[in-house]
Amino acid sequence: MVDEPQSRNADDLRLLYESSVTELVFFKSRQWTVTHYGFLLYAGLLATAEIGRWPHGWVRSVLFAATLAVGAAAIAFVRVGLQEAIRVRRRRLKAVRKRLTRPFRKAWRAGEKRDDAEDWVHVFLCGVLALGALITGILILAGPWRPAMLTLNDRELHLARAAPVVGRWSTL
């Protein structure tokens, strides 16, 4: 018969292991979700600047500051909040694995990777968020963006369509 405290200990370890793995999956997916929402906010700020067609001035400065604030908040949440929670769960898993049976540990070490290998994902996400904030901020500060074809009136558009193609491009 199995010793009751030993059986309870094994159940506790299994529960701790499963909850840690589940939390790791949740926090990793949350990092990607925060990154996606950060880009949606960038797009919203840029769309606000472009739809309003505000000239350079205080409105664009406010939108630029909002872009930087969104970027900083998203990076802080991914880097500080979620990554620290992930590190805690990884340390917990490592401690639980030390308490598991020898055959399990031997099988686990067969596919073990470096401890710092996982840290590159959040660095990548933070870099992408920073680059997105920079590009969005530059586009906001650059002023209203209007493609050339959208600024033509109906008469100019009709003339542009009716004009014969001349020059070296006509042979294509």
Task: Give an account of the 3D structure.
It is a single chain. With 172 residues, the protein is mostly helical. It has one domain (7-171). The chain is built from five helices and no strands.
Radius of gyration: 27 Å
Portion of residues within helices: over 70%
> First CA to last CA: what distance?
86 Å
Unreliable spans: none
SSE pattern, N- to C-terminal: HHHHH
Question: So what's the overall shape?
Answer: rod-shaped
Mean pLDDT: 79
Q: Which class of secondary structure composition applies to the elements? A: mainly alpha
Q: Assess the beta-strand content as a share of residues.
A: under 5%
- Helices, by number, come to 5
- Characterize the main sheet: none
Number of strands: 0
Tally of separate domains: 1
Furnish the topology, listing elements before pairings.
Elements: H1 4-52, H2 58-99, H3 102-109, H4 119-142, H5 154-162
State the gist of this model.
This protein is an all-alpha fold. The chain is built from five helices and no strands. It has one domain.
What features would you highlight for this structure?
single chain; 172 residues; mainly alpha; 0% strand
